[in-house]
Write a structure and sequence with these properties.
Number of helices: 7
Number of strands: 42
Largest sheet: 8 strands, antiparallel
Strand content: 35-45%
Shape: globular
Structural class: mainly beta
Amino acid sequence: MRKAHFLRPSASVWRAVCLLLVLGASQGLAQFAVVSTVPGNGATNVDTAATFVITFNAPLDTSARFAWPRDFYIGLSMTPEPGEPDSVTLSPDLRTVRIHNLHLWPDTRFCLAILGARSSTGSVLQLPVVVTFTTGSTLPTATVSGIITLPGGDPSGTVVALFSDLFSGDVQAMAVVPGLSGAYMAQYVPPGRYWPVALKDVDHSGDFDPNPAADLLAVYDPNGDGVADSLVVDDGATVTGVNMTLSTFTALTARQRYAATAALVRGWSADADLVWLAAPDLSPSGTAPLWLYLFFSRREQRLYGIMASSFFLAPFHWDEEVPDTTALPDNWVDSDVAADSAEAHAGEAFRQANPDAHLSAFLSHLELPATRKLARLFPEEQAPRWAPEQPRGLCQARVGSLQLSTSQSSLRLGRPNFMATAAPVWAFMYLSESTGELWTAFIDAESGRFLAAWPPPVLVTTARFCVPLAEQAALAWAQDAQLVFLGTHLTSLSPSGQAEMWFYAYHSPSRDSLRGFFFYAGMLVLEGEIPPLLSPVPLPASWVDSDVAALVAETNGGSTYRATQSDVWVTAILGTGSYPSDPNLPVWYVQYLSSTAEEMTVFVDARTGNLVTGVEHGKPTLGTAGVFALLPNYPNPFNPVTTIEYHVREKCRVRLEVLDPLGRRIATLLDEEQSPGVHRVQFHAGSLPSGVYLCRIETHQFAAVRKMVIVR
């Protein structure tokens, strides 16, 4: 199952569930323990740059790894979350860890939990340790206490957490059950309303696993009605009797707890309808230890969220946008039926090829624009299948997964997010943690029939393959639409002239505007208006395809460039205005880019398929006087910094911007008056994903655009 940090604050319920799935109270198998910490529990006036010192009674196994922090040999949690430490050092005897300067917030109360560690002899940390301290002068004085019961078992090592919002809010206080009696006390609790939860890591893994026969959980339910309750802690109060009984989880289908969940919500709001449900951790048979249900009241215009397990129902707060609040039909098929369909249509094969595959699912109203087109390309008997003998690229979510946002002119790499109002659909998502591969099966929620998969098989095509669909979509936009430009987009051209993604631009004289059409794997996935940065001259009807242009480019230095350079990325565009000697000539502009060499460009006549000019290497050389020019950035491709050079002929105001492929501004690098001469600006890509971006320069009488490629 996927692991996440238990105490990492988050507003998302998905992330909140992961918080729940991770908490680990590492009960020891031997007397391995923390003997001291600096600061100690209850410390005040702690320096914001303090060094944290944790001392154990035996040498540490530094090869051990825990859920948080990543790649660290101690399992730690702190709320609120601090900054990154300056450094971490370990004493020569391997017993004392020093964490130097966590960049703490001033006048803030912190709760540090030491959840996991292992000694050099293999003993696990017997009991977690909680340390509450403040960088201010005082701590709250309220306490919350009670008894944790484990029928027929030992509750020691259980961690009790007080959530400000059940499973999705910050943890405001923690305590550890130290012994068989089950008694605990959470100290230094600030005033507020809290949802108490107890968790026991039975297998001492440092992670919390709610699957059957795994770890244990309890919620506060004083009246025994099976619904989690909260409590109020006043300033300085002593709250006692907060007792909880640990239980194990039973795997359930989505319908097994639906009736009880719906009855609870409709007791609050009679017109509430189910609009969404999900399981963040699902078995291949369609059962899960936890289900999330979201109901919408039209009268109140509010959402009600319920988390359901075999032994409790718990309300949760939802603060993210819901794609669709249309009520799900009463006859939706249960999760086991939908799971059988997903497994039969490649889910099982995906798991066999990816032993670490994690499965989750949700049910909602979805529109599947890309998969509808996929269904037209592949008849049902030829629907995409994932099989071990097929190329692993079929599920390369890091490159091929498209995210469609609410704006028609928005496209970026990421997780599929198809906007709604079509039909109720189950989505089963298979994710391999080790490879990052993601495969999603879409199942009709009323019949259980397999609809489609995402990503589809990675279909690489030449440029002409997508033209019929592009033409159809363009004419639907404007009857006089004419193709003026096309090129590869976000994917590299293969030596055979194929790419996974192509972009087509059409100009409408009657509308006096341009519209772009994006195709991935032969499917139209996005269209939208684009800025008037391209020549409106139509391409000749008989333009040669990209395989012809690629053959010419490869023959004239391209294949050698690929063989001798690293990280080669090839872009290809077809249009007018690209060939310096004759801007009216329609040419294929094939550009080879590498992190180890200057770029190389080949021009191919789009009418004849002949080489137009010799190969050009590097950036052009231009005089510094009497010229406005925007030179190619270097290096290109780059990660994460590149230099942009431009020439200014006379004193004037210069604006230099970085745009995404649809012309939306990513960054303004400068907008100021500059003197004549050569100027250079560095662009830091920061967290921008891999792909093609545009650099645009504008003055009072000059404008130019250059393509830049980020390769992570």
